[in-house]
Design brief:
Elements: E1 12-15, E2 19-21, E3 28-35, E4 41-46, E5 49-50, E6 57-62, E7 65-70, E8 79-87, E9 90-99, E10 106-107, E11 123-124, E12 134-138, E13 141-143, E14 148-150, E15 154-158
Parallel strand pairs: 2-9
Antiparallel strand pairs: 1-3, 3-7, 4-5, 4-8, 6-7, 8-9, 10-11, 12-15, 13-14
Protein name: Ig-like domain-containing protein
Domain Ig-like: 11-99
Keywords: Immunoglobulin domain
């Protein structure tokens, strides 16, 4: 005898990216993943206004993954998006910001240097147009087991070297 047990719960959502970089003329995809009851209804909003499909905007469900695709991105498409999953037991919302500004720096190097006199700092920044300048603020942190003393902030301007990825 086989028994099938279905546990009903309010939907839970995760977003693939909470911040999405976009530029006019490009196509973008926003993705929300629903966990739990996959029979939830998914609604998309831009700046709190309910979105409907148009000739440039499509909404696709695929199993637990829901996509909002915007083709030929326009200035009016920038803003805050939300995906709302709704079922009989509850409603859940997650937010995605779509911005034309470069993204925040993602520091790859370790937090502390193994050397006393230098530090190799490595980071990436997501941006569609090439960056013209990066302003780096840094300071030395003097510390031992019982004491931490942050030093004075220094500002350094860097002319970046553009690196293109395969998907650009």
């Amino acid at each position: 005898m086989d028994i099938q047990l279905t546990i009903l719960s309010p939907p839970e959502i995760t977003v693939e990216k909470a911040w999405v970089h976009a530029a006019e003329g490009y196509d973008i995809e926003l993705v929300c993943v629903v966990h739990g009851d996959v029979n939830s209804e998914m609604l998309w909003y831009q700046n709190s206004f309910l979105l409907d499909p148009t000739d440039r905007r499509s909404m696709y469900p695929h199993d637990d993954r829901y996509s909002l695709i915007i083709r030929n991105f326009q200035q009016t498409d920038f803003g805050n998006y939300s995906c709302v999953a709704d079922n009989a037991l509850g409603r859940t919302k997650k937010y995605i910001e779509v911005s034309g500004r470069p993204g925040p720096a993602d520091f790859i190097s370790p937090a502390l240097s193994g050397f006393l006199d230098h530090y190799n700092l490595t980071w990436t920044i997501e941006s569609i147009p090439p960056l013209e300048e990066i302003k780096l603020l840094y300071r030395r942190l003097l510390m031992n087991e019982t004491y931490q003393h942050p030093g004075k902030w220094h500002e350094y301007h860097i002319k970046p070297i553009p690196i293109r990825t395969d998907d650009q």
